[in-house]
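Input/output pair, single chain:
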Amino acid sequence: MVKIRLFRTGKTNSPYYRVVVMDSRSPRNGKYIDNLGTYDPRGGKLELDSIKAQEWIKKGAQPTVIVSKLLKRKEAN
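Output:
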């Protein structure tokens, strides 16, 4: 199954995430299929290509709980 989920980067105690499309069996920081954007929880910045994300959802990709909240937040703005 293909999922849209977060890929952690950044230093210890300074998380920074990429929103990516990847196989659900892959490890958290494994190889991903497509990069949809970035999320900085410390600064509250969200850069996300919502059109690309909707295309992946139409193809059958399942967003995780956190990513679905981020998508709703992006659509509200």
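The chain has a mean pLDDT of 92. The helical segments are 50-58, 65-76.
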